[in-house]
Amino acid sequence: MKDILVSAPYMLPELDRLLPVLKAFDLNLIVPEVHERLSEEEILAYAGDFDGTICGDDRYTRRVIEACQPRLRVISKWGTGIDSIDQAAAADFGVMVGNTPNAFTVPVSESVLGYMLSFARNIPWLDDAMKASEWQKINGKTLSECTLGVVGVGNVGQAVLRRARGFGMELLGNDIVDVAPDFLLENGVEMTSLQDLLSRSDFISINCSLNPTSQHLINAETLSWVKPGAILINTARGPIIDQPALVKALQEGKLGGAGMDVFEDEPLPANSPLLKMNNVLLSPHNTNSSPRFWERVHWNTIKNLLIGLEIPTDRLAALKAEYGG
User: Fold this and answer.
1) Known catalytic residue at 266
2) What is the value of pTM for the model shown?
């Protein structure tokens, strides 16, 4: 029997349904109390007690991975991003890291469009005025009048650009890797420098992964390049944006507003200035929400766990047919 630490917040509510599946592979579950993610110290409390984990954005640092030896063989991440896992340390200790690439492209890209439409058409502020008994005509604009700049033209970034094309927006992209020319030609996307993109875009969507090149990519200097009145949207990872610099840019009017689903510290602290800003739309790291896509991730996460434990997966399809949501 293998012991599994299960701490992925989105999978925990489904454990009653999925427990027979995991039991079928002779897996014993250790289920800690989780508030968004497990810290280093919280994981270390279980070091040496588990052979694999199904985790969210838990802090699997080198210190943690080393302390969990020799038992830990697999870290099966629920979702796509693995920036919270020290991949070099995992490789050094022979620990497999599994994830689900392209897991939330559709819900996240639709959320970006939702933010843009909310700002362009002033939907939240018109609603606030009406509910305050104010018959207030707030001028809006159409997306076809606007330029969208996407930073990070990968799976999600490309999906955002495809959808924005349908609204007649001018499209700009920026990435440190080459993007397929046929995608750019088909969708009318102009690749350009970060400075040029920021200076020309009415809406800026952050869709790159978090890595050493993107940590605080949006900072005081790069925010000084932004077109006055532009809206910054981040549905990627919080630390890509220097949050104090963002707050200052909003307070000084350099930015027209921001749509934020991710933050440097999560949950967002109760004393964050962002919570009191009328030109900021916030959500709790939730733009991935979709029952269909979550279900796909549940099963792929289990599959990755089994592969890492060297347990045959041939029975998984039949179990999915019986216990799938």
Assistant:
1) yes
2) 0.93
Name the token pair of 38: 């497990």
17 is catalytic: no
Residue 58, SS3 per DSSP: coil
Residues 35-45: pLDDT tens digits? 999 999 999 99
| Residue 252 bears catalytic tag | no
Active-site residue (options: 285, 292, 296, 322): 285
The number of helices, as runs of H, and strands, as runs of E, in the chain is: 13, 12
Which member of 59, 73, 237, 298 is catalytic?
237
Strand positions, DSSP E, 175-230: 189-191, 203-206
Query: What is the tens place of the pLDDT at every residue in 186-223?
Result: 999 999 999 999 999 999 999 999 999 999 999 999 99
Residue 257 contacts residue 230 (beta carbons within 8 Å): no
What are the structural domains of the chain? Answer: 2-103+290-323 (3.40.50.720), 105-282 (3.40.50.720)
pLDDT digits (tens, 9 = 90+) for 227-264: 999 999 999 999 999 999 999 999 999 999 999 999 99
* 3-class secondary-structure state, position 28: strand
User: Which residue bears the tokens 């990070």?
Assistant: 152
List the catalytic residue out of 110, 266, 295, 296. Answer: 266
